[in-house]
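ok new one. same drill as before - structure tokens go in, u give me an amino acid for every spot. 93 of them this time. try not to just spam alanines like last time pls lmao
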């Protein structure tokens, strides 16, 4: 019989992926964030961080207000999303 290394009482860690949005603090309150892999990126989007286009096939981040209905979603380059806290006030789009 194969050996099991996981203890029975140890809970499984949740996996993150394109279908598992996470909650982070934003300038206007909680923000839902989803990381999109390159294979899932099929359209051209405009990044609010640098105002450049995100080309199809480019991994990126989608963020929207937690209390919103998703109509306020914004697609960010991963680097722009990671640098959002270092931006000047009022530059969050």
């Amino acid at each position: 019989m194969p050996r099991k290394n996981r203890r029975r009482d140890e809970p499984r860690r949740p996996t993150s992926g394109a279908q598992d949005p996470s909650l982070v603090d934003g300038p206007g309150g909680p923000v839902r964030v989803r990381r999109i892999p390159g294979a899932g990126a099929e359209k051209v989007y405009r990044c609010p961080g640098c105002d450049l286009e995100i080309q199809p096939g480019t991994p990126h981040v989608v963020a929207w207000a937690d209390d919103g209905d998703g109509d306020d979603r914004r697609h960010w380059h991963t680097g722009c999303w990671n640098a959002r806290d270092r931006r000047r006030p009022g530059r969050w789009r």
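Residues 24-82 form one domain. and btw The CA atoms of residues 23 and 32 lie 5 Å apart.
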